[in-house]
Amino acid sequence: MIKYALGCAAGHAFESWFPDSAAYEKQRKRGLIACPECASTEVDKAIMAPAVVGFDRAGPPALAGPLLDEKRREVRAMIADMRREIEANTDDVGANFPAVARAIHAGDEPERAIRGQASREEARALIEEGVGVLPIPALADDMN
Ligand SMILES: [Zn+2]
Q1: What gap in Å lies between CA 64 and CA 73, rounded to an integer?
Q2: Domain count within the chain
Q3: Same domain, yes or no, for 16 and 62?
Q4: I need a labelling partner for 107 at 20 to 30 A (CA). Which of 19, 44, 49, 69 fits?
């Protein structure tokens, strides 16, 4: 079994187990892997690179409100754990995230794990350029 950190087209991050990488590819191509947050089947591996990114307030809606059922609480706890882990192990470059991530990708800056803010469009552009980023949905607590 292999665990992958995945992300959907809307920027939700989640994890899933697969028998092996070939099974993951097969399931993904058949649209059998759906985002637990929005059910999108447009998913891809979200991590494998040191760079991470958090969405700013223009990003996806927070996990909150009356829909906070058991599943959402689990997802929320997972994301909170992930955020704590990331905050302990990365440099906060704030709004410079896209520029610094590109510089690291190009080899102009020393390779290191960073975090910061980027708009959805910026995050998507970075992913398309092959810069590894892990979109992390904002939690409701951050909005208060
Ligand atoms: Zn989603």
Answers
A1: 9
A2: 2
A3: no
A4: 44
Is residue 27 domain-shared with residue 86, that is, in the same domain?
A: no
Question: 51 pLDDT exceeds 50?
Answer: no
Cα(90) to centroid(ligand 1), Å: 25
Report the predicted TM-score, pTM, of the whole model to 2 decimal places.
0.43
| Percent of the residues in the chain that have a pLDDT greater than 70, as a whole number | 78
Domain extent for 76: 47-144
- Cβ–Cβ under 8 Å, residues 20 and 7: no
Answer whether 143's CB lies under 8 Å from 62's CB. Answer: yes
Calculate how far, in angstroms, residue 116's C-alpha sits from the geometric centre of ligand 1. Answer: 21
Residues 21 and 91 in one domain: no
Which chain residues have CB less than 5 Å from ligand 1, an ion? 8, 10, 12, 35, 37-38, 40
Beta bridge partners of 14: 6
